[in-house]
Amino acid sequence: MKIAADACTLILLAKASVLEKGTEAFKVTMTAEVYEEVLKGKGKMAEDAFLIERLEKEKKITVVRSLKKMTEELIKNFEMGKGEASVISLALEEKGMVIATDNRQGRKVAKINNLNLVGSLELVVALFKKGKITSEKALSALKVLETEGWFDDYLIEKTKEDIK
Amino acid sequence: MTEVEFLGARLEKDIIGMVEKTAEEEHVDKTKALKELILLGRKQYLINKFLERYRKGLCSLDKCAEEVGVSVGEMMQEAVRAGIRSSQTVEEYRQGLNLLLK
Question: Could you state, in order of their start, the residue ranges of all structural domains in chain B?
């Protein structure tokens, strides 16, 4: 399964220490615009930015180009940043592509366009269900998402039920 | 060297007091203290402005980061600090999970 992730989801999964495992279970891609957004974190010595850079260098995450015209239209019509717009543009272009985003605006536009959509929470649970991470690891990742992310408590509780 | 211009402004005594206190605390002159406070204030103003737009669903988070001049990671932290919650529902979570486990 091919997943195009935005900067928010890549950062959250990196912080939760499950991104590398995610690249073993799924074919993870990011657009050049998303990669540029992620690398800005290096200026603040963000660990997630260095990890994602390493995974890109090791070809565990591939960088792809999106259609410039479509990306620009999305930026204009939905007040999106270059990264988020390029991910949506990529999924519109490539049938069957799954979008990974935790960004409200990105999720909204993905739903409008009936695109395959996932978020960080289900990615963590899927890694557990696929036997890529242990239940302890999944729960500790969810704990990080609980504090670093903006997920509602009830949603976190539902995901924890799926780890049992 | 950056070009500088003179700007006259009438300020309340308590604001002048803030500038003086900052200058004293940071061991800098009042001009430098005032510049720092303006820059920090402008940044916070932009953060608040764009987080409100994000909260209302009017723009994406990376757009906020672009406009404020911070990284996406920093903007995410600001959103969490501001108490912004995800719009994701349990049904969406279930659909996403089913898709990943196909």
Answer: 13-101
Sequence ranges of the domains in chain A:
2-163
Q: Check CB contact under 8 Å for B62 and A155.
A: no
User: ipTM score of the complex?
Assistant: 0.93
Query: What fold characterizes domain A2-163?
Result: Rossmann fold (3.40.50)
Smallest CA–CA distance, residue B102 to chain A, in Å, is 9
Nearest Cα to Cα of residue B90 among A125, A26, A13: A125
CA gap B95, B81 in Å, rounded: 29
What predicted TM-score, i.e. pTM, was given to this entire model?
Answer: 0.92
pLDDT by residue for chain B (102 residues), tens digit each?
678 899 999 999 999 999 999 999 999 999 999 999 999 999 999 999 999 999 999 999 999 999 999 999 999 999 999 999 988 999 999 999 999 998
